[in-house]
Request: fold
Amino acid sequence: MALKQEWLPWSDDGFLTLPASFDAHVHLRDGAMMRAITRTIRQGGADAVYVMPNLVPPITTVKMALDYQRRLQELEPNVKFLMSLYLHESITPEVIKEAKREGIKGVKSYPAGVTTNSSAGVVDYASFYPVFAELERQDLVLNLHGEMPSGKDITILNAEEKFLPTLLELHSRFPSLRIVLEHCTTAAAVEAVKSCGPKVVGTITAHHLSLIVDDFAGDSYNYCKPVPKTPEDRHALLNAAVSGNYKFFLGTDSAPHPAIAKRGGPDGNAKHAAGVFSQKYATQYVLDAFEMAVEKGSLDAAQLKKIDVADFLSRFGRDFYREPRSKQRIRVSREKTERLQGIVSDDGDIEVVVFRRGEMTRRLEWL
Reply:
């Protein structure tokens, strides 16, 4: 029997009206994949997104970022693309000043080798202290992929917790620097963000609100970095998302890969690509996760009724990035009437499998 959905203010005709979502962490790739993915942003209810810079080669200059933004805007003029730079040895305080002048929003840090296209990432954070100081002066954002590389006593299961002392050290050294701990996956990460001052926030993905470690074991389409963790960690993420705390907001980390790469290549013998594609149904996935959590007793329906889900989906992220709140509106159906379907590029060469493939979700419409 379906849950009596009293946890959201559904209208009499079975819809929920919300401001357009803001997705604070997206991977839109390049080339044919970019052309296929970018057109799905509004299908997922977002009218503004913060774009990750880990292309090949990575976005390490302001010119590259602006050129990328122009190409994205040409593909989807009804979405605002907020741009970032890839933290690299070529990023200097002078580059940060230029980025500020040209409207770039922040710099993304990837520890070397921890995720897709991160081989040119950071080895020693101390060497970038002058860059962080300039970010602080210019009031730009430092986006942290919060994992340590595997090795010694570090695995994909504890890589995030092992990174948290780095977050706390950076915040201590640069207390006025706006920092995002991206795609939080553990209760420890949630508590670390909460323990910091008002300049430190965390994004939470739609898929980490649903998955635990068991869900990616044996299913490569659920494999992502950072990996999902325990039921207790998922519980902490869900409660952070509905807490009404401005420190937590949506960043899907939607990371498309060709289906063949998710399956380990043509013969299945290669490593499976890490990343979950959720852009096409971003808003719906979050609402579905909340509903499933209420059904399982992980969230209290009464608690949900006291908060506005639009804060997590739309307002808190825009406020942090100093963006105006959206005047556009979407509405989402109470009933799950749409089957989740992936995408295929125009030339038919690229298939991307969507998160929770084949399941049902809600219909989303623009008003």
